[in-house]
Write a structure and sequence with these properties.
By secondary structure, this protein is an alpha+beta fold. A hairpin with a 2-residue loop joins strand 6 and strand 7. Helix 7 packs parallel to helix 8 and helix 9 packs antiparallel against helix 17. The structure holds carboxymethyl coenzyme *A. The site of carboxymethyl coenzyme *A has 20 residues, from helix 17.
């Protein structure tokens, strides 16, 4: 490929035909080859399983520099937001593109809190689930079921309808998440308390009992706030891309968010936080770490160390650094003995980071490595970890959906393929088949 200014020229060596491919640059980071005309000009597609080298959209929302370990929401570094902001303010920022004034924040807070209750009809859906179903299965079913309510706002071409759906989704996710836990425990559902902030309200709905007064532990609420902010968006990851692809057909937003929940559930994505705790429990004692590290390095063993590695971060995941610090802070504030799993995690990180296998492949702890330890310390059961991730990420999914719906370049998502199946052949009647 020869490069001219702002284009590269591709020559098809079979025909000698040359095509200029424009180069586009964004605010930060790698530019892109704009290959949209490639098929019409050369009759060829690009081939990129897993989208390793493919940008599927342009976006104003989130920027990641994987080499430098940088994460920005609307330009603001994640470290500053985690230290200084609130989750609800981060939601406003992701949706609107700027930090709110005090009045804007108050209006937004009211818009969210006036939607925290779920339709009473939703309650009947729960009894259809087995009591021991995974809470992510509840979430899939219940968020999907929400598409059968709220007929006042189903026109996705109407910005006001989109805004109402966005508020409803952000507001109702904690209620549905807490309900799924309460149902699985055989506990009565708690109605949301709108005088509480987002994190406090979730903890209240999870843990308050009708028999006792419940005070939200401020240390837990602070740690949860950090977790929510750090998970709020992460540009075009698998679940966000699933939401964009599902909704590119004009699908209902609740149904589209289900596509995100389904994708997030997998252990290579949001399900990793649950898998990390299971791994640490399996390791049991620091002396067993080398055995598990050896398994992860063994080419003949599919075993992976959960919570390590990332498609984009090749230096460190800034969210993991912040969560590790939050873990130290939480355990100190609670005045508890060091959690033995946290000690194993710290030692596992130390051993892996000194190991050539992990160094060569640039495998570092990711956001899921320490988040489970914080959630566990708050008394949140392991199978709820990915639900908390889904709750936090809903704003990211919705912000990306709203951006896509306003994007003049938006078209239905339709990836192509390299067909390697049988060549054309004739149907053989059943009595003539060998
Ligand atoms: N343990 C051992 N080896 C690993 C691991 C791991 N956790 N992750 C990657 N590798 C190896 C992999 O075997 C491959 O080695 P080789 O080049 O010799 O074949 C190399 O590193 C590259 O791996 P890859 O699978 O091609 O990388 P990817 O970018 O496709 O996958 C990943 C990224 C996050 C899915 C992967 O690192 C992984 O499975 N990690 C464990 C699951 C996890 O923690 N997921 C949470 C991700 S962060 C939060 C989120 O997105 O939800």
């Amino acid at each position: 490929m020869a490069e001219k200014q702002n284009t590269v020229t591709i020559t098809d060596n079979r025909s000698g035909k040359k095509v200029d491919i424009p180069i586009q640059h964004g605010t930060h980071g790698s530019g892109v080859f704009d290959v949209r005309k490639m098929y019409s000009e050369l009759g060829m597609f690009t081939y990129d399983p897993g989208f390793v080298s493919t940008a599927t959209c342009s976006s104003y929302i989130t920027y990641i520099d994987g080499d430098e370990g940088i994460l920005l929401y609307r330009g603001y570094p994640i470290e500053q937001l985690a230290e200084k902001s609130s989750y609800i303010e981060v939601c406003y920022l992701l949706l609107n593109g700027h930090l709110p004034s005090a009045a804007q924040l108050e209006t937004f807070r009211c818009n969210i809190t006036c939607h925290t209750m779920v339709h009473e009809g939703m309650r009947r859906f729960y009894s259809g689930f087995r009591h021991d179903a995974h809470p992510m299965a509840f979430m899939l079913g219940c968020v999907g079921a929400m598409s059968s309510f709220y007929h006042d706002s189903t026109d996705v071409t109407n910005p006001r309808h989109r805004e109402i759906s966005a508020h409803r989704l952000i507001a109702k996710m904690p209620t549905l998440a807490a309900d799924s836990y309460r149902y699985s425990m055989g506990l009565p559902f708690n109605f949301p308390k709108n005088k509480l902030d987002y994190s406090d309200n979730f903890l209240y709905m999870m843990f308050a009992l009708p028999t006792d007064d419940y005070e939200v532990n401020p240390v837990h609420a602070k740690a949860l706030r950090t977790i929510l902010i750090l998970h709020a968006d992460h540009e075009q990851n698998a679940s966000t891309s699933s939401v964009r692809l599902a909704s590119s057909s004009g699908a209902n937003p609740f149904a589209s968010v289900c596509a995100g929940i389904a994708s997030l559930w997998g252990p290579a994505h949001g399900g990793a936080n649950e898998a990390v705790i299971k791994t640490l429990e399996e390791i049991g004692e620091a002396k067993n770490i080398p055995k598990f590290v050896a398994r992860a390095k063994d080419k003949d063993d599919p075993y992976r160390l959960m919570g390590f590695g990332h498609r984009i971060y090749k230096n460190f995941d800034p969210r993991a650094t912040l969560i590790r610090d939050a873990c130290h802070e939480l355990l100190n504030d609670l005045g508890e003995q060091q959690d033995p799993l946290f000690e194993i995690a710290l030692e596992l990180e130390r051993i892996a980071l000194e190991d050539d296998y992990f160094k060569e492949r640039k495998l570092y702890p990711n956001v899921d490595f320490y988040s489970g330890i914080i959630l566990r310390a708050m008394g949140i059961p392991i199978n709820m970890f990915t639900v908390v991730f889904a709750m936090a990420r809903t704003v990211g999914w919705i912000a990306q959906w709203m951006e896509m719906m306003d994007d003049p370049e938006q078209r239905i998502g339709r990836p192509r393929q390299l067909y390697v199946g049988p060549a054309t052949r004739d149907y053989v009647p059943i009595d003539e088949r060998e």
